Amino acid sequence: MISAFLHGYLLSFGLILPLGPQNTFVFTQGATQPKLIRAIPVAVAASLADTFLILLAVFGVSVIVLTIPIIKTILTIIGIAFLLYIGWVTWKSEPTNNESHSEFDSLKKRIVFALSVSLLNPHAILDTIGVIGTSAVTYTGSERFAVTFACILNSWLWCFGLTIMGRSLGVVDRNGRVLKVLNKVSAVIIWVSAIYLIKQLLDLSLFV
C-alpha cells in the first residue's frame, strides 16, 4: 500500500510540475492579490478541478476518452480557443496591490478562470486520464485508493504551495515590476500551450 501511495504521488508530481496555464494562474493570483486569503479560493478551485479529473481517470473514463477520436478533437479545439483567450487576458492584466482595478478582481471571475484553465485544458485532461487512469487500473482495493489519494493530496499541496510562493513574491515586489513581467511570461506560456495543441490537432487530422 505504501509503494502504491508513493507511485501515485510521484506520478502526479511529474504531471503537475511543468509550467502550464493552471500553474501560472494559481501562482500569479497568489502574487497579485493584496492578501493571501483572497488567493485561497483560486487554489481551492484548481485543486477541486484536479480532484474531479483524477477521480474520473481512476474510475475508467480514460477508456472512453482515449478510444473515441472525436472526443479528443472536440476537447482540443475548445482548449485552443480558450487558451488563446486566457493568454490575451493575462497579457493585458495589470498587477496591483490595491483592492480594485484588477482583471481578476471579482471572486466569481477568479474561480471560473481557475476551473476553466483546469477543466478546459485538453492537454491536462488527457495527461491526467491517460497517465493516472491507465496506471490506476493496475491496482485494486486499498492500493487503488492509496494511488488515488496520493494524486489528490499532491494536487492540493502543490496548488497551495504555488499560492504561498506567489504571495511571497508579491510582498517583496511592492512596485509590481516583477509581476508585470511575470504576467507577460505567463501569457507566453499559455500561448505556447495553445500552439502545442494546434500542432497535435494538425497531426491528428493527418491521420484521419
**Approximate strand percentage:** under 5%
Q: Give the biggest beta sheet.
A: none
The mean pLDDT is 78
Helix content: over 70%
User: Using DSSP, what is the number of strands?
Assistant: 0
Q: Compute the separation of the termini in Å.
A: 42 Å
Question: Low-confidence stretches at least 5 residues in length (pLDDT < 50)?
Answer: 97-102
SSE order: HHHHHHHHH
Determine Rg (CA atoms, Å): 18 Å
* Cα shape: globular
Give the count of structural domains. Answer: 1
Discrete helix count: 9
Based on helices, strands and strand pairing, what is the structural class?
Answer: mainly alpha
Explain the overall architecture:
Helix 2 (21-32) crosses helix 8 and helix 2 packs antiparallel against helix 9. The chain has one domain (2-206). It is mostly helical and 208 residues long. Helices cover 82% and strands 0% of the residues.
What descriptors fit this protein?
208 residues, globular, 9 helices, 0% strand, single chain, mainly alpha
Concise account of the structure shown:
The chain has 208 residues and is mostly helical.
Question: Topology, pairings included?
Answer:
Blueprint: H1 2-16, H2 21-32, H3 36-58, H4 61-67, H5 69-92, H6 107-119, H7 122-136, H8 141-172, H9 177-206
